[in-house]
Design brief:
0% strand
Length: 419
């Protein structure tokens, strides 16, 4: 296959990933405008950004079952259309619409969060780190674009239309995926045709029939019984806690602790997200370095989070270095966690179970962190205590990442690495 054709085949994948955080990130820069015009308190308005994350945690098990029932292609088209619909509903402006739209788009993103890793397990296990890197980088491109463009759009169009136009991205993603992959009834294939090892070739574009998937998965235990799923869930709590806390509180932190203006602090958040595109892309090249291994990437990214937060806690003047390091590791850390999950899965059914387990644990725990950091900030009146809480979270990530690395080494010792 030519490089051009391979790149064209990636376009639907990139578009589906690109849309995932746009609705949440686009709301952040204009949340004060929305709360004022809709008659919400800041606490109620803040819930609009946390509702989707809570949906990820609560609905991930349901999403895993749905993907197994309707297939990957139809799940991704349905989810993309629903994200677009959720954005439109949220932009209607009434209180029920604001919260109902947030629940709708959060539920749809939960479906994509399961479908894309399942797709990677089926088609791209031999390139799982690269594909997870492309997914994470695409998400960060969408997030950074939304962070930079949302405020000017709202200033020009008003918040309802300014936020509602982002639905176009999701509808385009759905249309392109449908055009490229279709949503026809899954073709019944023999169990032997399902990609279950990295050594097998890329699967056909059509979804595999659920009966074939069930037959192929008889040799594997349910994903929730895989120890790695639980360890990765705890690691995701730590990583997600650091990421959501930084995304939520970095502007105010830099204003109050480092003396930046509101405009400059907002630009730093955009830079944090833009730099997040680079980290995942570098991972495949880093993995090719002499002596490097996948488990060592977990160590590097975990220590990166620790370095970022220690710098913020102990050296406020070095905030540019902290933002640089944090930006690089925030996308890379999730990419490594997601790749661990794909790496140890015996087949796509087990992959869905592992994804459901670690995402449910991870999102549930991570959603609490911005609230906790805000509460500690309010109770202490400063940023020393909140930052040291985050340093403690990063230390825990290093420890839990070490446990995950140990499990990965054991897995690779037991399973031939041709996979």
């Amino acid at each position: 296959m030519s490089p051009r054709r391979r790149a064209v085949q990636l376009v639907p994948f990139v578009l589906v990933a690109l849309q995932l955080q746009i609705p949440t990130i686009a709301l952040g820069p204009v949340i004060a405008v929305v709360s004022r015009d809709a008659g919400l308190t800041l606490g109620q308005a803040g819930a609009l950004t946390s509702i989707p994350v809570l949906c990820f945690a609560v609905l991930t098990p349901v999403a895993a079952r749905a993907v197994g029932t309707i297939g990957i292609n139809r799940a991704l088209v349905l989810a993309s259309v629903t994200i677009g619909a959720g954005v439109v509903v949220r932009s209607l402006g009434t209180l029920p619409a604001l919260f109902g739209g947030s629940i709708l788009l959060g539920s749809a993103v939960a479906l994509v969060n399961i479908a894309l890793p399942t797709l990677i397990t089926r088609r791209y296990r031999h390139r799982s780190l690269l594909m997870n890197a492309i997914q994470t980088s695409s998400i960060n491109v969408g997030s950074a674009t939304a962070a930079l463009v949302s405020a000017p759009l709202v200033a020009s169009l008003g918040w309802q239309l300014g936020l509602g136009v982002w639905s176009v991205v999701s509808l385009v993603a759905a249309a392109v995926w449908w055009w490229r992959n279709g949503i026809a009834r899954p073709e019944r294939l023999p169990a032997s045709s399902v990609v279950t090892t990295m050594a097998e070739a890329i699967a056909e574009d059509d979804d595999v029939d659920p009966a074939a998937r069930a037959a192929s998965s008889g040799r594997s235990v349910p994903g929730w019984r895989v120890p790695m799923a639980w360890v990765l869930g705890v690691a995701f709590v730590m990583h997600g806690g650091c990421y959501f806390a930084m995304s939520s509180w970095l502007p105010l932190l830099l204003q109050e602790r480092s003396g930046l203006s509101a405009t400059t602090a907002g630009a730093c958040v955009a830079a944090f997200l833009v730099i997040g595109v680079i980290g995942p892309v570098l991972l495949p090249a880093v993995l090719k370095l002499p002596g490097m291994a996948l488990w060592k990437l977990m160590t590097l990214t975990s220590i990166g989070w620790l370095v970022c937060l220690v710098l913020l806690a102990t050296a406020p003047a070095l905030w540019p270095l902290a933002v640089l390091v944090g930006g690089l590791v925030q996308g890379a850390s999730y990419t490594v966690i997601a790749t661990f999950a794909v790496h140890v899965a015996a087949d796509e059914d087990q992959s869905r179970g592992i994804q459901a387990t670690f995402q449910t644990i991870g999102f549930a725990g991570a959603a609490v962190m911005p609230v906790l950091i805000g509460a500690v900030r309010d109770s202490t009146g400063g940023w020393d205590a909140p930052l040291w809480v985050l340093v403690g979270v990063a230390v825990a990530l290093v420890v839990v990442g070490g446990v995950a690395s140990r499990l990965l080494v054991r897995h690779d010792a037991a399973v031939p690495a041709a996979a």
